[in-house]
Amino acid sequence: MEKTLRLKAKELLESGEVKVVIGYGWNRSKTRTTPVFITDPADVDTLVWNPLCVNNLSLYLTRKYKEIKALGRPAIVAKGCDIRNIVVLITEGQFKREDVFIIGMTCNGTVYKQDLWKGELTPNIMPTKCHNCDVRNPHVTDFVVGEKSTFTPPEVPTGMVYDKVKDLDSKSQSERWAFWVKEFSRCVKCYACRQVCPLCYCERCITEKNMPQWIETSAHPRGNLSWNLTRAMHLVGRCTFCGECERSCPVNIPLNLINQKMIGVVKEAFDFKSGYDEKTHPPMIVFSPDDKENFIK
Amino acid sequence: MSGHTEHSAPTGGYEPKIMAFVCNWCTYAGADLAGTSRMEYRPNVRIIKLPCTGRIDPLFIIKAFENGADGVLVSGCHPGDCHYTTGNYHARRRWIGFKHLMEFAGIDMRRLHFSWVSASEAIKWVDLINKVTDEIKALGPFMEYKGLKATEAEQG
Ligand code: SF4
Ligand code: SF4
Ligand code: SF4
Ligand code: FES
């Protein structure tokens, strides 16, 4: 796959069809992959592809990265799950489909965290999303690299995240409160979860609005709760469960649980799953007069 | 005499603080009607008027709890009646998300209420406020939330 990938990257850069290829390369000690931005066709051998390619590179297509945008039209090496974020960005008018060349990688899963890698991809080191993945054959692409995957995801999604969400749902209100207060109390307000999320692209985040100070700046349980609730709320109907926020959290707050919970709510209430169709509006910017609820009195 | 006009002014003890975020055109007008009709109801509600339910950011609700509210009520025009045509339809979607999020976070949903109250529904408003106030009064102060600041102190 690497060979095809490099050839394609070379061809795209040489022809001038794209000005930069955003992909994965090795770090110096070859223990993990790191994003690379290739502008010179001579450098395409830097590109790699393996189960350590966990980063969701669609982040670099957002307006947070003006210097990358300035390079010119990009090609991006993307797994199906990353493409879901690209699709959301398109539906939110961040750029047009034709503004990016998508090199879709067929995928057999990645590791949850790079440090778990022992040289072999086993189910126990893969994140929940991979076990339920329906985009191992990438769904929106300009070019596909790799053999077709024959994997079919289980009919009812399974895995740690789903189990834990169900478990929390079955608990009492006060137990859930205790659970989250404890988890969020570790938050240090580093905002890595926001920084890494391809959908947190506001130029001025609510955390930076200080007239008034909407989100308390010090890391204490009350402000941490408001930050984490606000972050979750801003991603309703948008989050693709790519898992980058949780992966980047230095204190391991299980953000995937909240994300997945809200994905379930959106599915149930609006019959919508984000990141599949670049022509459908995200659910929170539209409405239906027939939206159902049973709690507004 | 119907329940809403009944005199049962709370006597002494704890009085909950309840914040109501309401739209200008329906619920505020409904509350105003209750006032001009001299209907009596529990005095625990602080009303904040906004142009439309579409302007009610969920963060307002979080801020209300942060600042010591024991309960929050959000209310606007009935679906189809929004002064700006669609503001409340958008708000309803947001509330659906927010309500489930708050529930998942373990907020006691008896402290957070959503309703549609039109400009003519003064009676509905009065009954709602009385009911919500009594329920929250029975629950007592929202110590879980207020206590979050103290948790910090404990941790040093
Ligand atoms: S979710 Fe699917 S596409 Fe993404 S890494 Fe896992 S298997 Fe690959
Ligand atoms: S899983 Fe996290 S990083 Fe990925 S889209 Fe959702 S909120 Fe953003
Ligand atoms: S990454 Fe974790 S610690 Fe940092 S702000 Fe987000 S939740 Fe808090
Ligand atoms: S004006 Fe009342 S909900 Fe929009």
Structural key phrases:
heterodimer; A: 297 residues; 33% helix; globular; B: 156 residues; alpha/beta; Rossmann fold; disordered N terminus; binds iron/sulfur cluster; binds FE2/S2 (inorganic) cluster
Describe the 3D structure.
The complex is a heterodimer of chains A (297) and B (156). By secondary structure, chain A is an alpha/beta fold. Chain A folds into two domains: 2-145, no CATH class; 160-285, no CATH class. In chain A, 33% of the residues lie in helices and 9% in strands. Chain A is built from ten helices and five strands. The model of chain A has no long low-confidence stretch (mean pLDDT 96). Helices cover 44% and strands 15% of the residues of chain B. In chain B, strands 2-1-3-4 form a four-stranded parallel beta sheet, sandwiched between helices. In chain B, strand 3, helix 3 (87-105) and strand 4 (112-116) form a beta-alpha-beta unit. In chain B, helix 1 (27-36) crosses helix 4 (122-139). Chain B is globular. Classes of the chains: A alpha/beta (297), B alpha/beta (156). Chain A binds chain B through residues 168-169, 173-181, 185, 206, 214, 216, 220-222, 225-226, 229-230, 232-233, 236-237, 258, 261-262, 265-266, 269-270, 283-284, 287-289, 291, 293, 295-297, and chain B through 58-59, 62-63, 66, 79-80, 86, 89-90, 92-109, 113-116, 128, 144-145, 148-149, 151-152, 155. One iron/sulfur cluster is lined by residues 187-193, 248-251, 253 of chain A. One iron/sulfur cluster (SF4) binds next to helix 7 of chain A.
